[in-house]
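[09:14] KT: can someone run the structure on this one? pasting the chain below
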Amino acid sequence: MLFQRKPPIIRFRCRPEDRDVIAPPVPAKTVLPDWFRKLPAVDQDKLSATDTGLTVKRCMPFLDAMTTGWVIPLAATVRLEISSGGTKVDAGWDFDRTMVSNHGAHQLRGHPGADRPPCKFHNYWTVQTPPGWSCLFIHPLNRPNGVFEIVSGIVDTDSYLSEIHFPFFATGNDGLHVLERGSPLVQIIPFCRETTGLEAEIRAENPQEAMRRETILRNTRAAPGWYRENARARR
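[09:31] RB: done, structure tokens below
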């Protein structure tokens, strides 16, 4: 009798009083931005002998980055008031719990964005992964919003079973910026720590490897859908 191995499960838990109140985590593929959904696969105005007119909507690496993992959205609507050339940030919200606070500037001293005050979005979901699994928390990939940028980090979510807050820098222009409840806040990419222990081999390619590289490059140039149909099928 064959037993199917159950897939690993990522668990999101909130306080009982927050259930159905704060915005829940969702698969990243379900919250593609409107600009991407409206983008044509081919821009007919760009068709020429040298320009295929293909947009990023047909670029699988771009789309795979956007749709991988999960997204934790903003629990409630937040107002960010950016002033003094971005060196001052004030936040407000209509919620009974803290949504934004200051982050210790000393922890980000030397960071290229540290000329702006580091802040922190508060998250009210606890993330739990199976033993041996951690999570990469990053700004939602290929989704610049012009207002803030999350500082990336990795957490061992198999042992740290508490709420994780997300440092960020306000990147927007001076003025009032309203971030609606449910807006993508952070993208979560779980990974098995055992699979990251790869050793590197650094050398020049041999003739067979060079031929394979050139064949893939020619196929990709000749048929933009080749990667979608071939590389994805080998997974």
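[09:33] KT: thanks! The mean pLDDT is 86.
[09:34] RB: yep, looked fine to me
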